[in-house]
Design goal:
It is a single chain. Helix content is 37%, strand content 11%. The protein contains 15 helices and eleven strands. The protein has an eight-stranded mixed sheet, with helices on both faces. The protein has a three-stranded mixed sheet with strand order 1-3-2. Strand 10 and strand 11 form a beta hairpin. Helix 2 runs antiparallel to helix 3, helix 10 packs across helix 11 and helix 11 crosses helix 13. The two termini are 13 Å apart. The relative contact order is 0.14.
């Protein structure tokens, strides 16, 4: 029996336009599942039930009154949650922090506006760690986000709530954001497809600055086609953006229907963080993906050394400074978590020359790296160095040890935030314990289309949509 939440977002949108399913039915279905199951997975910090039902009723009227329902926007009536780092006018926004537990959004982020213009229905705000800084989702304002494949383990972060929602059938797709791996990490931990777009593809405005260009919004989905559709909706520069991605030329969703051709793909499982040992399960996923890519006719070569461990301190400098960008009144600083206070301390101790030197060092390294990386259509890595870890694995440690564990868990992801290149998590492998283990593909700047075509080819060759955690049928 097909359940409502078995439908892909693309299929759901088509069913709404034909009248096969109503937006109100969809909203009620997901709100019911959220009420019953969210306490187990920690996907939502705020549920906007009244708003969702009203938006769904308006969407239903629009379908009934449309001269041609095919002209309705692409996500008309489809529920899409927003990460709690993004502002929605009139909706509570905590940024994962008890210091912001009473904040109400006073504007819509551009990505929120674009999703609304596409006809989506807001069903809630998904959980995030404090200010989105860690690679796991445990905070003082909501229960931990857990991967539905093993509820004792973390969903990752910082878009952990978004990934937990999609993987548990509490949302068809979700908006996330990624400053050091925060879409790809939870996508790997939850068995989903996630896209970190090219720098400047999706606007960070109008409230939040994009000074360093590390962070971007992007989609988390169960299928490549759904993620591509969501990326189409999110994309586009806005006035004041510091970065602009190369124009795509055509919709990203069209690439999901197109064979990629024979590609030259480099690969590396050598972590750019000293002392990291990649878990055998992650190596197995990487080797299986390499073999599959070769079987599909692609040329697979080893990636020459490009970006080394000497960049890690410079990235950490930027991360510490970014931690200071969220204004916290002095009288509320005691409400911040130890890791946040530690990172903000590092940032506050960084001088302007040190910050500029770190940024210059990263740019200098990229000047040498891009001519090498641009020789390849895609680059393959393990997404993570370990399978999903138990809840508390990071959070229960002192800040220095917490941060060390995070860098050893996610040694591959942040490189592509520094470079601005697009990168995706592809959920091709599950280990013997039934845990999803993703692999990462990165592309040239502006190369999301190639990654989407390649990922769609992998999805067709090794379909993952039939894999569902036990909670899916609850």
């Amino acid at each position: 029996m097909t359940r409502t939440h078995d439908l892909s977002a693309t299929r759901m949108a088509a069913a709404v336009r034909t009248g096969e399913v109503s937006p109100v039915e969809l909203a009620e279905h997901y709100l019911d599942r959220i009420e019953r199951l969210n306490p187990q997975v920690g996907a939502y910090v705020t549920v906007t039930a009244e708003r969702a039902l009203e938006e769904a009723r308006q969407a239903e009227k629009a379908v009934l009154g449309a001269a041609d329902p095919a002209d309705l926007p692409p996500l008309h009536g489809v529920p899409v949650p927003i990460k709690d780092l993004n502002m929605v006018h009139g909706v509570r926004m905590t940024c994962g922090s008890s210091a912001f537990s009473e904040l109400t959004g006073f504007a819509d982020d551009h990505v929120v506006s674009k999703l609304a213009q596409a006809g989506s229905v807001l069903i809630g705000k998904t959980t995030t760690p404090e200010f989105g800084l860690p690679c796991y989702t445990e905070s003082d304002v909501a229960p931990p986000a857990r991967t539905p494949w093993d509820l004792s383990r973390s969903a990752g972060g910082s878009s952990g709530g978004a990934a937990a929602a999609v993987a548990s059938g509490l949302a068809p797709v979700a908006q996330g954001s990624d400053g050091g791996g925060s879409i790809r990490i939870p996508s790997s931990a939850c068995g989903l497809f996630g896209i970190k777009p090219t720098r400047g593809r999706v606007s960070q405005g109008p409230i939040f600055p994009d000074l360093f260009g590390l962070a971007t919004n992007g989609p988390i989905a169960r299928t490549v086609r759904d993620a591509a559709l969501l990326l189409d909706v999110m994309s586009g520069p806005m006035p004041g953006d510091l970065y602009r991605a190369p124009q795509a030329g055509e919709p990203f969703s069209s690439y999901a229907d197109r064979a990629p051709g024979r590609l030259r793909i480099a690969r590396s499982a050598e972590p750019p963080v000293p002392g990291v040992e990649v878990h055998p399960d992650c190596v197995a996923a990487y080797e299986e993906a390499s073999a599959l890519l070769e079987e599909l006719g692609h040329e697979i070569v080893e990636l020459p050394p490009v970006l080394g461990s000497d960049l890690l301190p410079h990235f950490a400098t930027l991360w510490g400074v970014m931690a200071t960008m969220t204004p916290v009144p002095q009288e509320d600083e005691h409400l911040l978590q130890p890791l946040t206070r530690w990172l903000r301390g590092l940032g506050e101790a960084t001088t302007a020359p040190q910050l500029l030197q770190a940024q210059a060092a990263l740019q200098g390294a990229l000047r040498a790296a891009f001519p090498v990386m641009d020789e390849f259509d895609a680059i393959l890595h393990p997404t993570l160095a370990m399978p999903p870890v138990p809840v508390g694995y990071f959070h229960g440690q002192e800040p220095e040890e917490n941060f060390r564990r995070q860098t050893h868990f996610t040694p591959f992801t942040a490189v592509y935030n520094v470079s601005g290149q697009p990168a995706v998590n592809v959920p091709l492998h599950w280990n013997d314990d039934g845990l999803p283990i993703g692999v990462m593909l990165a592309g040239r700047l502006g190369g999301e289309g190639t990654l989407i075509s390649l990922s769609a080819q992998l999805e067709e060759a090794r379909p993952w949509i039939g894999r569902k955690p036990q909670i899916w049928t609850a």
